[in-house]
Amino acid sequence: MPHHLTAGARGTDSALLAVHAALRELRARLGADPEGPVDVAAAVKRTGGDEVVAEAVTRAPGQPPEASDRMRRGLVAPVGPEYPGFVSFSFIAHFTEVRVEPVTRRIRVSRMVSVADGGRVAGPVAAESQVRGGVVWGIGAALREHSEADPRYGGLVDDDLADSVIPVDADVGTIDVDFIDEPGHPLDPMGVTNLGEVALVGVAPAIANAVFHATGRRVRRLPIRIEDVL
User: What residue ranges define each of the domains in the chain, with the CATH number in brackets?
Assistant: First the structure.
């Protein structure tokens, strides 16, 4: 399987396509039913061998055979996929509660609830962790992080973590994550779509809306500074 590059939220469903095909081939070699649980140890024993190996090579619609050859040589295969019958998007809703100190106007995100629809969830623990990480990243983007450019040479003054103001434990309140967890568009037999950028991009707007609700100040730039809500 020519794996997608690590961008565009395509890694999981790209890999699962080949894993799913290999598992179906394994069922066939074990003489097991196409669906349902399998006693793997007993099925392997019935074959008379010590192990059963199954392999699968998959290509997404629109990818030519050369894509597999590029993969075997360690190269990326960026062509495709093509889905002329539909488009696929994931969705997420972020609900935010902020607390603004009335005198100093310091802003804290006390609670965030994120509900995502990324098709069927392949790995619940990893998926929840990814959304939580996106929320923390979004809190930093909304209230803390800022890149200072040197006006003389154009370089970034704060170009490492030592000089960047990033969220710490005190900046992050309760984060509740949930999933619709239903098969999405027919990208693959598993019903998985993607869960990447959606975990982040809506967080800062949600915080900005909550700040507006709390203070009456509509801020349209990031990060939201104390002087923006004084």
Answer: 11-72 (no CATH), 91-228 (3.30.365.10)
